[in-house]
Write a structure and sequence with these properties.
It contains one helix and 15 strands, in the order αβββββββββββββββ. The N and C termini lie far apart (45 Å).
């Protein structure tokens, strides 16, 4: 599949860059810093081979991975009249404890049906994003996001049947460009601030989708609460980016946080 959306967004970003950079943090810009937690969910599968090692496992149906507690996330933003900057970091932990209903393979290690398998998956996402507000008014704006998001996966399994214990691990990083439209608004004399975006890329049959929405309410001018949704969807079928691997991954969910504005 041809690369979708990225060339148009990049041309728009480069065309608007000189105007956007003319605005500094002086003027009407505001800084936001927040701490938050997300009730994320996880599903997906790995089928095929990676580095010569076979995989055949479904993260939800086979391993029953579920979110394990809440991990704090952090973000720092600058939002100005013509552009915005965001730096954020989030971590989610998932664990599973199940007896297999079928034989699975994780990075070359095979677990037979009826084996009790303990599993864990840690995801750590770091985002840098530049938002260019192409059309900006007093209460609303429309623009484009341009950035990068790196998601690290640390996956481990262990299982035992009779007196035999086996373990396997797999770690990979999925760096993804962040390109797509974004929009936002302010209301109630600046007490209510909202934003939504969708990032999408498609190449050679593989696709990546990252939608998000954010709503912030400031009962005090400098302190508020934040409700948001953030999700990611990876689809890498066999024959696309990797001829011998079919990867599917869905991450994300709703969250709440406390945000300071200065």
């Amino acid at each position: 599949m041809r690369l979708s959306a990225a060339p148009l967004m990049l041309v728009l970003a480069l065309g608007l860059a000189p105007e956007a950079l003319a605005y500094g943090p002086g003027g009407q810009g505001r800084w936001f810093a927040d701490i938050h937690a997300q009730g994320a969910s996880l599903s997906g599968h790995l089928q095929g081979t990676s580095g010569g090692n076979p995989f055949n496992v479904d993260l939800k149906d086979d391993l029953g991975l579920e979110r394990s507690g809440y991990k704090p996330g952090f973000s720092l933003e600058y939002q100005g009249p013509r552009f915005g900057l965001e730096l954020s970091r989030d971590r989610q932990d998932y664990t599973g404890d199940t007896h297999l209903s079928r034989t699975i393979t994780v990075n070359g290690t095979t677990y037979a049906a009826s084996t009790r398998v303990l599993s864990s998956l840690k995801t750590t996402s770091t985002t840098f994003n530049w938002t260019i507000r192409a059309l900006a008014g007093p209460q609303a704006w429309l623009g484009v996001d341009l950035g990068v998001r790196s998601t690290e996966l640390d996956f481990a399994t262990s299982g035992s049947l009779a007196s035999t214990t086996t373990a396997a691990g797999y770690r990979t990083t999925l760096p993804m460009p962040q390109v797509g439209p974004a929009a936002g608004f302010t209301a109630l004399d600046g007490a209510l601030v909202g934003r939504a975006f969708v990032h999408f890329l498609a190449y050679k049959g593989a696709s990546y989708t990252h939608p998000g929405a954010d709503l912030r309410y400031f009962p005090i001018s400098w302190l508020g609460i934040r409700a948001f949704y953030d999700g990611e969807r990876f689809r890498v079928p066999k024959g696309s980016l990797k001829d011998d691997m079919d990867l599917s991954l869905d991450l994300g969910g709703a969250g709440l946080g406390v945000v300071a504005r200065f």
